[in-house]
Amino acid sequence: MINKIIGTAFSRGLMAIFGLLTLILNTRYLGAEKLGELAVYSITITLVVQVSEFIGGPSLVYLQKKFSTLQILTVSHLWSVTIALLTFLFLFLFNENFNFPFLLLAVIILIQAANHTHLHLLVGKEMIYGYNLSSIIQSTIMVSGIFISYQILGTTEITDYLHVYLIGQIVMLFFTIWFVSRVSESNKPTSSNWQMIKETFNYGAIIQGTNLLQFGVYRFNYLILESFTSFSNLGIYSVGNQLSEKVLIPGNAISTVQYSRIANSEEKEKSIDLTFSMILISSMVTLFAIIGLLIIPQSIISLILGVEFSSIKSLFFYLAPGVFFMSVSTIFSHYFAGLALYKYNFLTSGFGLVLSLLLSLLLIPVFNLEGAAITTSIVFTFQTVFQIIMFKKETKLSWNSMIWKFIHTSFDIKNILLKRIR
Question: What is the DSSP letter of 152?
């Protein structure tokens, strides 16, 4: 398992570097206002893909044990096509209101939804290598394509970025298809596709309902910020937020392996111990990354991103607490998801969204960019506290037991690391 974590962390690290290079190119060539508009497009794409994952989403990590791969792919892809077509029709009919590149967005949504289905299936089958490699390839295509478009061809419009993004998703699709084709088929169809749709939707509804709520926690303040200020401010904040979220990559890598392991385990006690280990590793790595981000001089940030984004440095201090607690929160979320205890994540996300709505409307009109950052940190801090309370309730552990488990786990991790170093 350690090798899977290291491999996933390494791949996420590469993706972070590629993502950072893409972000730098975007800030240098698109500027704050265009990045603000791009943030709105990205929110639209992510929101619709979340809807497509009501079937074919994270629930597959759990349900792949019950249904055949062919059934899963057939039903999931048909649903994705339906959602993409409905999106195209909606944006086409209301194009005067939105003025979106509706055909381009619909195609991106379709391809990305297919990729997500394949990736969730690979995680469920514990084919982490295929998951990691496919993701790295997509990131490589993105940064290479953006560089060619901006630097060599001189095309620096938002649609140019979206075209490169689509190409990256298409190339990734070939790889995810290849890896999924290598999945060993252990389950034969024992129920109809319609029965599978009902069961998948039942699981997917609460999972994706949770993800939609959490997506609102992540991005609702974007819309509030834009409505009270401007696209330029949104562009600056989105860049600062993306940079701070790069710090979460090690924690996300750890939680991916944790989720896959817990979903395929029948031993509750081992899942609890694994969660304590993952929390300690994720929080420590994230803390070091946060410190590294905070000590970067503002002059370096201005040199790399441009003077227009010099205020991002101050945003990091407001975002840092939220990023740290988010690294812990994601471990708790994947513990509950791995055990199919989706209601706990739903309650957490619902609590976070309500808090985010209230704080965004209170703080953003007064403090602008800083208000959005403060909102994010407060919300993730209280979400994590909320999860700790629910984790204690679900595991029936006392506070003393949890503290001792953390202490014992920290010594185990230290010994493992020392042994690997020697």
Answer: I
